[in-house]
Amino acid sequence: MKRMGTLRLLSDLSHFSGAGRLRELLAGDPAVRVRCSPDGRHLLLLRPPGSPSPQLLVAVRGPGAELERAWPAGHPSPLDAFFLPWPARPALVLVWESGLTEVWGAGVGPGWRLLRSTELCPGGGARVVAVAASRGRLVWCEERQEGAEGWQGPPAAFSHCVCFRTLEPSGEAGTNLGRTHILLHHCPSFGLLASRKDLFLVPTATTWPGVSHILLIWSPGKGKVMVAAPCLGLSHSQSLNPGRGDTWDFRTLLRGLPGLLSPMKPLTVHTWAPTPQGLLLLDFRGTVSLVQSHGGTRAVGTLQEAPAGLAGSAALGTFHGTLACVLGSTLELLDMGSGQLLERKVLSTDRVHLLAPPAPGMEDEEELETRGGLRLLSALGLFRVGWEAPQGLEVPSAEDLVFEEACEYYQRRSLRGTQLTPEELRHNSTFRAPQALASILQGHVSPSTLLTTLRAELRDYRALDQLKAHLVAGDDEEAGWTELAEHEVARLLRTELVGDQLAQLNMVFQALPTAAWGAILRALQLQPDGNGRLRSHAPPDVWKKVLGGTSAAKEPPNGILPVFELLCQCLCRLEPRWLPPFVELAQQQGGPGWGAGGPGLPLYRRALAVLGEEGTRSEALELELLLGSGRPKAVLQAVGQLVQKEQWERALEAGLALGHSSPLLRSEIFKLLLAEFARHRRLDAHLPLLCRLCPPDLAPAELLLLLRTHLPDESEPQTPFPEPGTEPPLTVGLLRTLLEQTGAQGRPSGPVLSLYEDILWDPGTPPPTPPRGPMTTLQASDHPGLEAWAPPGQGLCMTDTG
């Protein structure tokens, strides 16, 4: 039986805020531009410049406030407006011809509010002629003042360039705008049309005729641009990845493709329409063609009537292998494969707009129930066009569909030679998932309620299936893989990371470590603080999942690492210098039975285990982990290694970094280094740092006893000067600085506690000289005992003190 195309009323627009103004604009202005938000709840109507107010209206279905703006005469209205595919909140961007750009958002307060305003052409002298929003990027074509030299054609024909900036949400009420990247220099005026994967650069009425038969297709996910000439059936691919600094001069690009410059007539296109399958174009003869992302072009079909010049309205869309074309007040449905006309309907109005389908994973309950068709918007209401099953056809129940779909799913993944049947799935206890879903459906749960409950899980699992499909197909869309891997890591972090979930997380990190680490960065909210350390604002529940793991030094089962070890291993591969700050940050987290305060291995030892066996580890990373652990034994081990390597300054700085909160550990490090100071002279250059490390409560006598313990044994009497090639001994001059440091806290007022206190606190001024008296000559006869050693004929002069 032949299927029937149906046109069903979804809403009479009374559910939309500002319904009266919405109907008025749809019925009164045929040139109004209509766009739909990714979730299908918001409608944007933008009137061309010079139209009566309001020029902009945003209506919302259900609760929410509309946005209505008008610009007085003499003030330009926006060139174009787009909804942004942000899942957290609805947002739209307005772009003016001057380059002024405004980002508006809802859901962050009452009504709509301006989130950000910026200039796309800050230098002035440029004019935006076309703009599009594609996958988190704002792309525009601007006309610049300078002409293009070295090309056979008018200079103004190649005075344009195509640029883009990334546009992403930031926090609850912020936006991040990336820096400007230039895709094409010295190009003609292009129109910009964006699909979910590709950006199409199409010729316009002002494009120079010599190149008006050429269009370009930029695929950001594949990092390439396709130059196509549909009338010639030719296409050529070039690399264009702005992330690697790629950019192209349009003239240089075409000089290398002389076959595309054959004299041809310009493309006579009435309507362009981007679709998931490619770019649809309708010419003035009524022929519809499809330009695919690889540059190939094929005819889809021919309409019963052709457009009536440029003034006639037309809209194109696809659903379920069907092409829908609204031409004036006529709706035609054609088969995309054969081009056969399937159905033709006459509508009651000629002002009909085809709405783009909602983005995958962002549909609400109504959109999920009406999926599989196209939506038509007019002043009469919102309609859905789709196919209806013929009467008399038995539709299987939801329970039967569950087991049939599950049967096909398991059969594709089964290695058994026998065929699975739905009856076997019903009674075999091995297949519990379809039985659980069937039991839910038997409980008379409404589809909308079930979809609302499972929406997040279904979205995550669908993203995972898409990732698997991309990997199996070998599609080189690295950006898509990255995004899906980030979603998968975020989903796993919301589960209990044990068993299969932990194994799956390990697999994602092995396959896509960069994308997986990016998801961890967002989950833990890690940010550098400018001093080489990390800070985190993540809740304790997230850290509990990250730090939980093995409580003993055991080999992981089947090579599956706990989350903390997995992150340490990933950091060792990607950014080894951030491993010690990450471990230090993790040690500051903790809770009963987990984290740094848990009963298991210390985190620094778990991180060291990831680096490998002792002797094979990176010595620099091992030292940083030991020093940052805060454990006395580990810090002393690290200082000992630094002493063995004679890295004196770093060893001293490690002790000074402890501060006065660890006096015992500082004292142990000082004694270790003092022993080296007593044995050799290689620490003399760092004596000021050693004095700073000296404990304030150390007495001079204790210092000398410590030095004496480590002084080398002298088997021979010392000489004033060391023998050549021998180590100079410790001198009193070097020792004086340390002795002064031990008394730096002030001389005690009580009795002398040490034999050396008088020396340390000697004021440095000699006693006054006694007064001199008359000189007398001492005769040897007066002192007979002096004759034995006094030289003959000489006396001893003495001062008579009276």
UniProtKB/TrEMBL annotation:
UniProt GO cellular component terms: BLOC-2 complex; early endosome membrane; endoplasmic reticulum; lysosomal membrane
Residue numbers spanned by region Disordered: 761-802
Compositionally biased tracts (Pro residues): 764-773
Source superkingdom: Eukaryota
Main location per the UniProt record: membrane
Keywords, ordered alphabetically: Cytoplasm, Endoplasmic reticulum, Endosome, Membrane, Microsome
InterPro entries membership: BLOC-2_complex_Hps6_subunit, HPS6_C, HPS6_N
Protein biosynthesis is among the record's keywords: no
Residue ranges of every copy of the BLOC-2 complex member HPS6 C-terminal domain listed in the record: 400-772
Subcellular location: Microsome membrane
Coiled coil: none
Alphabetical GO biological process terms: blood coagulation; lysosome localization; protein localization to membrane
Domain BLOC-2 complex member HPS6 N-terminal: 1-385
This protein's record includes keyword Cytoplasm: yes
Quaternary data: Component of the biogenesis of lysosome-related organelles complex-2 (or BLOC2) composed of HPS3, HPS5 and HPS6. Interacts with HPS5 and HPS3. Interacts with biogenesis of lysosome-related organelles complex-1 (BLOC1). Interacts with AP-3 complex.
Role of this protein: May regulate the synthesis and function of lysosomes and of highly specialized organelles, such as melanosomes and platelet dense granules.
Protein name: Hermansky-Pudlak syndrome 6 protein homolog
Species in which this protein is naturally found: Gulo gulo (Wolverine)
